[in-house]
Amino acid sequence: MTNQQITDSIKSVLNIKKELVALKVWKQEPPSVPKYQGNAFPGICTQIGEVLQSGNTFHTNIEHCFCTGGVIATGVAQPLSEEERDEMLKVHFSISKSYQDVDTAICYENEMAKRIPHVKEKNAAVQVGLFKDIKDPDLILIFCTPGAADMLNRTYCYMSGEPVQGFGGNGGCPFLIQYPYATGKPSFSYSDVAWRKYIGMAEEELTLSFPYQSLLGFIGNLKEVAEAYRKYGEPPEE
Fold first, then answer.
1. How far is 93 from 82, CA to CA, in rounded Å?
2. Which of 26, 85, 131, 187 would be 80's cystine partner, CB 3.0–4.6 Å?
3. What pLDDT shows up at residue 238?
């Protein structure tokens, strides 16, 4: 199946409105892909929102993002030291009070470090665009209702025999970019206020993130599993 066929299948079977977005990580900046212009605030979540609005594709790096979450999540920027991280938290805290105090923010980040593996490799850029337009991407982001997410999750489990990890907390990039990129496993999250606001998510939407190869492994069974899902509990046809 082509990327366009996969996109059409997912959107039609699950009645999804938003386009699927893809991320592709590059070891060197790709000369054939336009570089992002300007500085995105907060960061890659804003760029994803721009892709959904414009349909454009571009590559980005740490120069273009105020928040470094997305570029750290793809190895385009290296993780901050604890001292650098704590100083960044203080800056974020002065802009948006997401915790009762700075110590609580640091405690949260320490817990996150235990759950989300670091990306060890070094990369030069991450391309953001519609899935249908990016060949061999690394990650596919799907914005949908919990019901649609359950059918995708059920299809993945049907084929892989593995559960899907989900996250709740403050952030989108660690849960939906870094975790699946570092582990090669899908994840889902309702994310946080920045991810939801700057991507332009509706209240009823959450995000699933699938590594491309993972998606290829089950997508051919989506229609069959979705049909069975919708008939769940009904008496068998005679």
1. 16
2. 85
3. 66
For tokens 């946080």, name the residue.
Answer: 192
In what side-by-side order are the strands of the sheet with 125-130?
58-60, 125-130, 21-26, 139-144, 206-211, 187-189, 165-167
pLDDT in tens, 42-56: 999 999 999 999 999
**Prediction pTM value:** 0.94
Grouping H, G, I as helix, E, B as strand and the rest as coil, residue 40 is strand
Give all strands (DSSP E) within the chain, no chain letters: 21-26, 58-60, 125-130, 139-144, 165-167, 187-189, 206-211
CA angle (192 as vertex; 72, 178 as ends), nearest 5: 25
Question: What SS3 state is found at 210?
Answer: strand
DSSP for 78-122, written as a single string: PPPPHHHHHHHHHHHHHH---SSSHHHHHHHHHHHHHHS----S-
pLDDT in tens, 123-144: 999 999 999 999 999 999 999 9
Which residues 6+ apart lie within 8 Å of 197 measured at CB? none
Do the beta carbons of residue 52 and residue 196 sit within 8 Å? no
Assess contact for 19 and 130: CB atoms under 8 A.
yes
SS3 content of the chain, % helix, strand, coil (to 5): 50, 15, 35
Packing angle between helix 222-230 and helix 146-160, nearest 10 degrees?
120
What are the tokens at 183? 């582990």
The neighbouring-strand residues paired with 22 are 129, 140
